Amino acid sequence: MKFPDETDSLCTSSIIEPIVQEVFELDCQNKLEGDFLENLEIEKKETKVFHVARISKKNFTVGQKVLLQHSKLKFFSGKLRSRWLGPHVITKNFANGTVEIQSLKTNNTFKVNDHQLKEYRKGFQTEPVEIMYLEDPIL
Known about the structure:
- By secondary structure, the chain is α+β, with helices and mostly antiparallel strands.
- 29% of the residues lie in helices and 21% in strands.
- The chain is built from one helix and five strands.
- Strands 4-3-2-1-5 form a five-stranded antiparallel β-sheet, with no helix packed on it.
- A hairpin with a 4-residue loop joins β2 and β3.
- It is elongated and about 105 Å long.
C-alpha cells in the first residue's frame, strides 16, 4: 500500500487557502445581505408609518352632501371634464368605511367606499359687479 506524499495530496495549503478565503468571503456577504435586508425592513416600516399618518380621515355624517369620484377610466376624455359626480346625499354610514348615498337627480341609492367621496361645497356667491368704462385721456 502506498501512502500519498505531499505532492499527491489534495489537502495542500495552496488548495485549501483559496477555498477557506472564498468561504470566508461568502460568509461576510451573507452577513452583509442579512444586515441589508434587516435595514430594508426597518425602512419599509418607517415609510408605512409616515404615509399612514398623513392619510386624511374623512368623517361624513348622514344628510351631508358629497361628490362621488367618476371612477371609469376613459382615455382622451378631455382635460376640462370633471372627475366628480353629484351632489349626492349620505343616507347611511357603515362601520367598515362603506357609505350609502342617494343621488339628488335620480333618487337611486347605492353603496360606495368613503375614499371615493369628497365634501360638496357650494360655489362662491357672486354679487353684481359695477362696470366702469374708462375714457381715453385728453392729451
